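We close this part of the discussion by returning to an individual protein. In the encoding step, the backbone of a single protein was reduced to a row of integers, each denoting a local shape. The sequence in question and its structure tokens are set out directly beneath this paragraph.
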Amino acid sequence: MNYTVLYQRVNEPGFPENMFYAHIPTLDLTTHGIGVDGAQIAAHDLVELWIAEKKANGEVVPVEGDVLTGQINISDAIHSA
């Protein structure tokens, strides 16, 4: 079973410079790790545990459909307000 993972650098004070979030949209899960590799490992471990818990409770595990990604640009004027 495959799930899309979106990686995003953590830009918050107090976090290591090379920390990344890993978002799994289909399952509404987020974790983090050092570097993309660390975030990928954390995401893999999290999803495996999450699926095992769902199955143990007799719950349905979502199957991913089509995933589209994009970006929007927000004016700098909004950020400076």
Summary: The CA atoms of residues 10 and 75 lie 22 Å apart. Helices lie at 35-56, 76-79.
